[in-house]
Amino acid sequence: ILSEYYILTAAHCLQQAKKFTVRVGERDTDKEEGNEVAHEVEMIIKHNKFVRETYDFDIAVIKLKTPITFRMNVAPACLPQKDWAESTLMTQKTGIVSGFGKTHEKGRPSTTLKMMEVPYVDRNTCKLSSSFSITQNMFCAGYDSKPEDGCQGDSGGPH
């Protein structure tokens, strides 16, 4: 959540959907806990250089038709200034991945919001271990040998 009307996500997440809603305050899709609110989408703005085949510039902004009401567990992300992000955030050893993605490679999506810490991977190691083209607009994270990571359905997630 960027502001009461805008959501930041991954552009590739918006490829197949014709119409969808954004749900805020969701923690368990099997339960109504009273904090969940669905918002209709007014507009999708994908980065104009987004390349679907390579995921380069894989970023988009969603504009909602109605504003989000901020409350406990529903708040905008705190975005850093570029220089602080580069000097402090990008020097950290780990980051957080979260979402309702699959919990096993061939499994079903999680019904509860999951979160885990994963180590950042240096660019050269990432390029050597990936069959994808890793551009300057990307960074890598994940374990080399531990079978834990974000999975399909976590892209564009809350963290």
In short:
The chain has 159 residues and is mainly beta.
Helix and strand arrangement:
Layout: E1 6-9, E2 21-24, E3 37-46, E4 60-64, H1 82-87, E5 94-99, E6 114-121, H2 123-129, E7 140-141
Antiparallel strand pairs: 1-4, 2-3, 3-4, 5-6, 6-7
Describe, in plain words, how this protein is organized in 3D.
The chain has 159 residues and is mainly β. It has two domains: 6-64, Beta Barrel (Thrombin, subunit H); 82-141, Trypsin-like serine proteases (Thrombin, subunit H). The protein is 8% helix and 25% strand. It contains two helices and seven strands, in the order ββββαββαβ. Strands 1-4-3-2 form a four-stranded antiparallel beta sheet, with no helix packed on it. A three-stranded antiparallel beta sheet has the order 5-6-7. The longest helix has 7 residues, at 123-129. It starts with 5 loop residues before the first strand and ends in an 18-residue tail after the last strand. The model has no long low-confidence stretch (mean pLDDT 88).
